[in-house]
Amino acid sequence: MKLKPLILSLAVLTAFTFSACDNGKESSQPAETTSSIASSELEQDVSNFESNAISDLDFDFDAAIQNIELFGNKISLPCTFEEFGSDFELYEDISIPFSDEENRLRVMIKYKGGFIGSVVLDCQLDDKNKIEKQVVALTLGDSQKNIPTNRNWYNDLIEIDFSGITYSSAETEVKQKLGTPTPKEGEYFDDRLAYDKSETEYLRIRFKENQITEFNLRIR
User: Fold this and answer.
1) What's the CA angle centered on 196, arms 176 and 208, to 5 degrees?
2) Confidence of residue 181 (pLDDT cuts 50, 70, 90)
3) Of 86, 99, 89, 73, residue with least CA distance to 161
């Protein structure tokens, strides 16, 4: 975290100040001991700050991403796309670099010939054997329908079980099973629940008329 070097610098400065203030006075303990105590206390403050920077979720995020069921297939993220099973297909004709990050590629995916969403792979556009690359994000649902593939979209209910949440779960049920969402502001979150472990580890669930329409999971 960027704040850590600053806070540690303050620890050194504070310790130096304590030592300087003791010059000319009799002290019951050496300056090195005072410095060590001050540094230790501020190290603990840094540790506490870092802990608070990650949201306290009411469910075990790490355990949940290792026990996903998608169309009856058990998925433990991170894993290769090959581990999704033979009914799933990477549609490499629609591959988009993920944001501004290097070595990240969003690729549309199919289930039994119909599009169901996309995955983010830990690879580049010109890499070979993409099915052997690590999946670091999974998006299911209608947010991907703006890509011109609608005629081939999977029309039945997407079958997923994530910590007891399915596409049939209402918003109240999601909150009951996953707990209190992470507070978020902005129009994007008007119809979404956010569960953030960190800036790069999160679950976003979108609703329309109290029905899940999008499931967006990122683990890295």
Assistant:
1) 60
2) very high
3) 73
Q: What is the pTM of this model?
A: 0.73
Tokens encoding 196: 């953030």
Q: Are residues 36 and 67 in the same domain?
A: no
Is residue 104 a contact partner of residue 98, using CB atoms and an 8 Å limit?
yes
Please enumerate, as own/partner, the contacts of 93-99 that have beta carbons within 8 Å and a separation of 24 or more.
94/147, 94/149, 95/125, 97/125, 98/137
Domain match, 32 and 68 both: no
Q: Which two tokens stand for residue 137?
A: 């994000």
Q: What is the pLDDT of residue 154?
A: 86
Question: Rounded to whole angstroms, how far apart are CA atoms 94 and 146?
Answer: 12
Structural domain range at position 83:
61-218
